Amino acid sequence: MAREQIAFFIDATRCINCKTCEVACKDFNGAVTGRRMRKVRTFEGGEFPNVFAYSISMSCNHCEFPLCVTHCPAGAYAKRESDGIVVHDPERCIGCRYCTWVCPYGAPQYDAAEGRVRKCNLCVEKIDKEIDPACVTSCPMRAIEIGTLAEIDARPGATVNVRDLPSAEITKPSCRYRVRKEANHG
Amino acid sequence: MPIGLPRKLFLKLSQAASSPGEPNEALDQAAPQPESHSDENGTRAVWVVCNNNCGGRCRLTAHVKNGVVVRISTDDSPDNVERPQLRACLKGRAMRNRLYHPDRLKYPMKRVGARGEGKFQRVSWDEAIDLIATNLRRALDTHGPESVYIQYGTGDCGAVRGRESAQRLMNLLGGYLGYYNNYSAACLEYTAPFITGVRDTNTYQTLVHSKLIILNGFNPAETVFETNSNYYLARAKEAGAKVVVIDPRLSETAATFADQWIPLRPTTDTALLLAMAHVMISEGLHDQAFLDKYCVGFDEEHMPDGVPYGNSFKSYVLGSSDGIPKTPEWASPITGVEADTIRRLARDYASMKPAQLLQGLGPQRHAYGEQSVRAGIVLACMTGNLGRLGGGWGGGEGGTGLSLPVGSLPTGTNPVKAKIPVFLWTDAVVRGTEMTAEDGVKDGPLKSNIKFIFNLASNTLVNQHADINRTVQILEDERLVEFIVGSDHFLTPSAKFADIVLPSDHSLERSDVGFPWSGEKYIVFGNKAVEPAFERKHDYWWLSEVAERLGVGEQFTEGKTEEGWLRQIIAEARAADPNFPTFEELSIKGGYRETPQEYVAFEKEIRDPEKHPFRTPSGKVEIFCKTLHDMNNPAVTGIPKYMPAWEGPQDALRSKYPLQCIGPHIKRRTHSTYDENAWMEQAEPQSMWISPEDARARKIADGDRVKVWNDRGALVIRARVTKRIRPGVISIPQGAWYTPDKNGVCQRGCINVLTSQKPTPLAHGNAQHTILVEVRKA
Fold first, then answer.
1. Distance CA A119, CA A60 (A)
2. Interface test mutation site (partner A, options B60, B93, B231, B243, max chain A beta carbons within 10 A)
3. Interface of A with B in 164-183 (CB under 8 A)
4. Is the ipTM of this complex over 0.85?
5. Looking at residues B404-430, what average pLDDT do you find?
6. Are residues B10 and B31 in contact, defined by beta-carbon separation less than 8 angstroms?
7. Nearest CA-CA partner of B648 in B311, B271, B203, B92
8. How many CB atoms lie within 10 A of CB B98?
9. Contact assignment for A141 to B231 by CB distance below 8 Å
C-alpha cells in the first residue's frame, strides 16, 4: 500500500445528481463525447409512495488491490508509491480491454475511435501542483472531496458498503461515501 | 520525495468538512484570487458568463490558446459560507460543445423552399439586410406598426441583445405590437400583485432559519432557480429543517432533500392547500390575530364593504357557502393523497415555525394556475409566516426587491400602446383585429393582425409555444405572417420557419453582463474570449444596418457599437452607485458581487403596517380580492377556489386519454437550449417517465420506444419505467427540438405537439402542463 493513499469522499446526501462533475471531467480530460471517466449513477428503492433515490458520483477508485494493474498485459497501469493514485498511460495501452472487464466499477473507458482505454488519473497534473481535481472544484453542492484514506475513513457516517455498489472486498476502493440510511450497509 | 497533496491541505479540508458552516480556508488558499487570473503555457484565462435563461447566473473561465477556447472552468474565487462561489452547472461546463458545434449557423441564408420546409440558400449580409429592410418597410407602409411583432425568447439573457435592439429600432420607426407576461410565470406574476400588491420573495439565505420547508412543485435541483439555491437548501437541512416536497415526480430535489414526498395529481394543488386550511380552521390551529391584523376576506367579520354574506374564504373552506366542506376526505380522491397525510402536513405547517412555503412555477403553468398561487399565499398568512425570517411564501425564490442599478440597452418609448398576452400571439396572427379585452388585449383593439415577426434567440416561434401542429399550420400560410426574420446559433425548429436566417454570435464571442433572477446583488461580466468565426454577428450590428437603410441609423446607434452601449450601461450604474466598479475592473474581476443578504419579503409591511401598508386597494393581503370578484367571471373568483381542470384528473376525456402528462424542466437543457449538445444528451437522454404499473398495463419495458398522443399530435420517445412518478401521470421533459417525420409525428419527444393553446382564465397564461394523453409501444 502507498505511503499516504489519496481517497475520494462523496457526500451522496448532498448530491443532486446534476452531473456537473461528469462534464467538468470530460472538458478537462480530452472533451470526448462517448467516454465517461466520471459517471453519476442513480439508484432507486422502496415502494410507491415511499420511494427513495440516491446518486453516486464515481470515477476510478484508485483501489488498494487494483485489478486493472494486475491484469493489464501491456503494463499500462501503475499504482503510485507516493499516494496510491492508479495511473494509466494511454501510450502503452494496446486496447485489449481486459481492464474494462476486471474493474467492478466500470472506471476504464474504452474509446473505440482511439482504440485505447482512458481512465481517471485523479487529475495528477493538478494534484502534483497541489490543485484539487476538476470534479472537486466543479461540484455545485461541494459534495466531492479528496483527502487521505485514513482521514476520510474516520469521517462521521463514512462507509464503503453501499446498497447498490459492488462489494468493497474485491478491490478495496479508496473511496468513502456518506449515503442516506436506506443505502448504508455499514 | 512523496508527491501529492500536502498534509497541510488535507488537514484543512478535513476541518472544513467536520464543521459545516465554517469558512473553508483551504479553498481560499488553494484557489488563485480572481485579480491574478492567468494561466500557463501560452494559455490566456478570461472571465466569461453563462447567460442562458435559468435562475442561476454563473461565473465561467474560458482558457484560450491561439484564439481557441481549449477548456472551461468555473469560479475559483474564495469559497465560503458567506460568499459561496458561483459554480456553474453541467450546462455551463459543456459550453465548448455548443461554441464549436459543427451545426452552428455560419452564414446568412434566405429561404428558397416553402416556409418551414427547411430549404435555404446562402446570401451575403448585404442581401440579407436589404431583404429585411425592404420587407419591414412594406409591412409598416401596408399594415402599420401594430403588424410588427418581436417574439418573446430567452436564448440570450445579456444586457445588450437582439430583443431590445429590435424594440429600439421599431420605436424609431413608429412602434410595434407589444406583449405582457412570459411563458414561465404568467399566473404567478399576474395574480400575486392582486393579493399582496407586489410580487416579492425572500432570498435563499433565509432558508437556514426555517424549521419546515414545503416545496410545492419547486425543483431547483433541476431548474437551477439560482446558482446556489441547492447549496442553501442543503444548509437548511443540515441546520435541522424538515423538507416536504409536493410533486407528482420524485424530482432530484425531492430525492435529495425531502423528508417526505407527497405525490399529488397534477392540477390539484389548490385542493390540497384548501384541505390543509380546513384542518387548521377546524382544529383552531390558524393564527387568527395575524389574519385580523394584516388580511381582508379570511372570515365574514373581515370582508370589504358591499359583498354579500357568505363569500369569505372561511365560509368556502367550511362549506357553509356551497355545502361542500373542503376536508382532507374531500381532497383525497381529487389529489390522490391520503387524508391523513394532508392532515399531518397541515398540523406540521401550523406548528413548526417559522416555515417557508415555496411554490415552483410548474403548478401555476396549469389550467386555473392563478388559484394555486393565491391559495399558497393564504396558507402563509393563516400560519402567520408571511414577512417573518425563516417564514414566508414565494413563487420559488428570486425576483425580489433587491437589484443592482444595472440596466440594459435603452429601447425608447413605444408609440403603440396595444399589448397582447404573450401566449396569445398565434391568435393575434389569425384574428388580431377581432381580439378584445376578453382575450386579455390591453389598450386595444389591434389595428392589424401580426404580419412581420422578429424571432431573435428564440425558439418560441414553434418549439416552446403550445400546440405545434396548429402553430405550424398558421406559420406555413404566407398570407398570414408575411415575413419572419430569425437569428440563432442553430437552425432550430423555429429558425426553420424564418424567411431570413442569421448566424448569431455566442456569449463567448462578445462582451456582456449577466444578472441572476435572485435577490443576490451581483452581476457576472462576460469578456469576449474569442472572435466570432465565419460570418457570425451580434444582432445589434445587423439591426443597426437595417436602421441605416430605413433612415434612422444615427438615432439608432447614437454612434455606439454594442460594446459602446455596454460601457454606457456600466457608466450609468456607477453614476447611481459610486462604489460600482468601472468597465475595466468588471472585466478583470469577472463581475461585481455584494455579500448576500437575508432579505425577508414583506418584512416591513408586517413590522409596521401603519407606515408600510400592503400596496393593495385595502392596504392588506387580499385573501378576498374585490377587484377580481367584481370582474364577474365565474373562473376568476374573489377568493381562491378549487376548480377541476380541463384535461385534469376529473375530466371525462380521461376515458379516451387516461394519463396526465407534465413537462418538467430537466438539468440537461435550459428550455430548448442545449438540446443540440451531445455531452448533455449523454448526461441525461431525453426520456419519458412512466410508473411500473402504467407501463405493465401497456406492456412497456424500460428503454422501449413509445408513442404518446392525443387529439392535437403525437410523438415518439424512449420510456424510463420508474417508481419515481405517480401512477396515472407521465412526464416528458420540455424543450426537445420538434423533429417531425413525414406523418408529423415528432421523433425527438417535443411535448408541445401535445399541449394546448387554451389560456388560463385571468392571466391568459400558458397551461402547458395540463394535458391528457395515451401511450403505447411504438
1. 7
2. B93
3. none
4. yes
5. 97
6. no
7. B271
8. 22
9. yes
Roughly what angle, to the nearest 10 degrees, separates helices B562-576 and B539-549?
110
Round to whole Å and give the CA distance between B409 and B162: 10
Residue B663 is inside which H or E element, if any?
none
Chain-centroid distance of CA B439 in Å reads 23
Rounded Cα gap, residues B373 and B15, in angstroms: 43
Which contacts of B414-417 are long-range, i.e. CB under 8 A and separated by 24 or more positions?
A: B414/B167, B414/B170, B414/B171, B414/B175, B414/B176, B414/B178, B415/B145, B415/B171, B415/B174, B415/B175, B416/B145, B416/B146, B416/B174, B416/B175, B416/B176, B416/B177, B416/B178, B417/B178, B417/B442, B417/B443
Are B67 and B542 contacting, i.e. CB atoms less than 8 angstroms apart? Answer: no
**Closest residue in chain A to residue B721, using alpha carbons only:** A44
Closest CB from A36, A44, A137 relative to B722: A44
Give the predicted TM-score (pTM) of the model: 0.94
In tens, the pLDDT along B564-592 reads: 999 999 999 999 999 999 999 999 999 99
Evaluate the omega torsion of the peptide bond into residue B325 and state whether it is cis, within 30 degrees of 0.
no
* DSSP 8-state class, residue B181: -
Q: b/e map of A51-66 (b: 16 or more CB within 10 Å)?
A: bbbbbbbbbbbbbbeb
Q: With the C-alpha atoms ordered B517, B518, B522, B527, is the resulting torsion angle positive or negative? A: negative
DSSP B537: B
Residue B591, φ and ψ in degrees, nearest 5: 135, -165
Residues 366-405 in B contacting A (C-alpha not used; CB under 8 Å)? none
Tally of residues, chain B: 778
Nearest to B338 by CA among B277, B265, B267: B265
Query: Is the CB of A27 less than 8 angstroms away from the CB of B94?
Result: yes
Are A130 and B30 an interchain contact pair (Cβ–Cβ within 8 Å)? yes
Chain B residues within 8 A of A131 when measuring between CB atoms: 30
- Average pLDDT (B516-535) is 93
Q: Residue B128 contacts by C-beta under 8 Å, 6 or more apart in sequence?
A: B108, B109, B110, B500, B502, B542
B301-319 as b/e, with b when 16 or more CB fall inside 10 Å? ebbbeebeeebbbbbbbbe
Contact A48 B726 (CB under 8 A): yes
Q: Do B261 and A51 touch (CB under 8 A)?
A: yes
φ and ψ at B183, to 5 degrees? Answer: -85, -5
Cite the DSSP H helix spans in B477-561. 539-549, 553-557
Q: A69, A75, A125: which is closest to A99 by C-alpha?
A: A69
Residues 93-122 in B contacting A (C-alpha not used; CB under 8 Å): 93-94, 96-97
Q: Which of B17, B72, B683 sits opposite A19 (nearest CB)?
A: B683
Cβ atoms of residues B222 and B664 within 8 Å? yes
Residue B602: pLDDT above 90?
A: yes
Say yes or no for a CB contact (<8 Å) between A28 and B71. Answer: yes
Interface contact B541, partner A, CB < 8 A: no
Tell me if B47 sits within 8 A of B591, measured CB to CB: yes
A18 reaches B (C-beta below 8 A): yes
Would you state the pLDDT for residue B17? 32
Q: How many of the other CB atoms lie within 10 Å of CB of B149?
A: 25
- Across the interface, whether the CB atoms of B73 and A139 are under 8 A apart is answered no
Cα separation, B193 vs B513, in Å, equals 29
Closest residue on chain A to B723 (Cα): A48
Contact A51 B727 (CB under 8 A): no
> What's B576's DSSP letter?
H
Q: What is the mean pLDDT of chain B?
A: 93
Give the mean model confidence (pLDDT) for residues B295-304: 98
Q: Does B667 touch chain A (CB under 8 A)?
A: yes
- Chain B residues 7-46 with CB within 8 Å of chain A: 9-10, 13-14, 17-18, 30-31
Question: Are the CB atoms for B657 and B772 separated by under 8 Å?
Answer: yes
